[in-house]
């Protein structure tokens, strides 16, 4: 960053010579040239001098560096947002797969339960007031054992 140039100026006096603002004699320098010319600022480097050109180049370089840092920070922020959005998208896709799987399992279970004759019989007996153990024993007693194809399956 460039420093601001300090300007010092000499202001003219509007009183008559030898008289101050309250009637006291004012102090005039013995050598007016020693103070320098009135209304002139300190010498500044000319616009074409190498010092000011280098300073301007440094200022431009610093500004370019700051702009590059800002661009880099902006790109980094955009990349973070993009990564976050992709992570969210992946998480939602995974959640959707899990939900679909769970719904398919529930649908299969519902189909099995809806077409289960033993369960229907158990519910009918329970509504009739039969205790659970007795109802289960009746249902299991009605089951027919599977027929064996040959004698080896029986052992």
Structural notes for this entry:
This protein is an all-alpha fold. The protein has helices at 50-114, 117-127, 132-142. The protein is rod-shaped. The two termini are 97 Å apart.
Structure, briefly:
The protein has 155 residues and is mainly α.
Q: Summarize the helix and strand pattern as letters.
A: HHH
The average pLDDT score comes to 76
The number of strands is: 0
Radius of gyration from CA coordinates: 50 Å
Distance, first to last CA: 97 Å
Describe the sheet with the most strands: none
Write down the oligomeric state.
single chain
Low-pLDDT windows of residues:
none
Helix content: 55-70%
Tell me the strand percentage band: under 5%
Structural class computed from helices and strand pairing: mainly alpha
Global outline: rod-shaped
- Number of separate helices: 3
